[in-house]
Specification:
Blueprint (H helix, E strand, L loop, with lengths): L1 H15 L6 E8 L10 E6 L4 E6 L5 E7 L2 E8 L5 E9 L4 E3 L2 E2 L8 E4 L13 E6 H6 L17 E3 L1 H4 L13 E3 L8 E4 L2 E2 L1 E2 L4 E2 L8 E9 L12 E6 L7 E9 L17 E15 L2 E14 L10
Parallel strand pairs: 1-7, 1-8, 6-9, 13-18
Antiparallel strand pairs: 1-4, 2-3, 2-5, 5-6, 10-17, 11-12, 13-14, 15-16, 17-18, 19-20, 20-21
């Protein structure tokens, strides 16, 4: 009886960790006649980290890669009597299910067919509605106080509140999640970072959200959520930390804003703005071991206000 309880506890723990931020790649390998090719060696390589995983197709010619970190990949297929298949420039996004069927041509293994120019992957294996916001958008678009969650507003079906639009930070902040998905109640949304829920307290405020430089990408899932996202009555914001690569990279910046840089508006006629925001961020990522890549982030935020001052506003 004790052993059965232990098994049930283990299954429950596994289910609790099922909120995934990783991608899935699956498909079927066929020859030119449409017959399945079993025993083919499929290799999925992370280009930036130079790491590979392999899978041998089963008797039905099927292959599947699970828990694949988002990033840039190359997919190859090799089988005896067929030319080598190679597909490069493949970008896998957070929580994506990519169905990629492979057709092999008869020939020597030393010959290869390389596919480079192609349309973006269409997620035909999932009915979930959502939008992916990548790190380039986080770096290029202006953000109030470097608050990454403000990019949620780019997703179709998201309606924001004035409190959300003026939120200067996201950690532990109720206004940071004060948005509505498809008419649902605001502050009822789920925020997930690297597969772990960040929601604390009664208004679904996130405990921690990375800075834009530490954020690789995130996906706002608004409808038709799969079973692992059962903790919310609204949208799911699925964030992913930026991972390390085979080379070291870093950035250091000082984000400064105070009344010396502010334009004079209607709200400033009663007197000068007396609140200041100074934020220093350091971000570094790269290979920390021959088999491991890592990422480090340091953020210092100083918010000062003199008597008689007002808030920062959208600035």
């Amino acid at each position: 009886m004790k052993w059965i309880r232990g098994v049930l506890l283990l299954v429950s723990a596994s289910a609790a960790l099922a909120q995934t931020f990783t991608a899935t790649v699956r498909g079927v390998v066929n020859d030119a006649s449409g017959a399945v090719v079993s025993g083919a060696m499929i290799t999925l390589t992370h280009v930036d980290q130079n790491r590979s995983v392999k899978y041998t197709t089963n008797q039905n010619g099927e292959y599947e890669f699970l828990q694949v970190p988002p990033g840039n990949y190359t997919l190859t297929a090799e089988a005896t009597g067929f030319k080598k298949y190679q597909r490069s420039g493949m970008v896998l996004e957070v929580a994506q299910v990519a169905a990629i069927d492979i057709r092999l041509e008869v020939g020597a293994v030393t010959e290869s067919i390389e596919i480079t120019a192609q349309a973006p992957l269409i997620e035909a294996a999932s009915s979930t509605l959502g939008e992916v916001v990548n790190g380039k958008s986080a770096d290029a678009l202006p953000l109030n106080g470097r608050n990454s969650l403000q990019l949620v507003a780019l997703t179709p079906g998201i309606n924001t509140t004035s409190a959300f639009r003026t939120a200067t930070f996201s950690n532990g902040s109720i206004p940071a999640v004060a948005f509505s998905a498809n008419g649902g109640r605001n502050v009822s949304n789920e925020v997930i970072l690297d597969g772990s829920s960040q929601i604390v307290m009664g208004y679904n405020q996130p405990a921690y959200v990375p800075t834009p430089d530490a954020l690789q990408e995130f996906k706002v899932q608004t409808n038709n959520l799969s079973a692992e996202y059962g903790r919310t009555g609204g949208a799911v914001v699925n964030l992913v930390h930026r991972s390390g690569t085979s080379e070291f990279h870093g950035v250091l910046y000082d984000f400064l804003r105070n009344d010396k840089f502010d334009a004079i508006g209607d709200s400033s006629r009663a007197g000068p703005r007396r609140m200041g925001l100074d934020r220093i961020d350091f971000d570094r990522h790269g290979r920390i071991h021959r088999r491991a890549c890592g990422h480090a982030e340091l953020s210092i935020r100083r918010l000062s206000q003199k008597p008689g001052g007002d808030d920062l506003g959208p600035g």
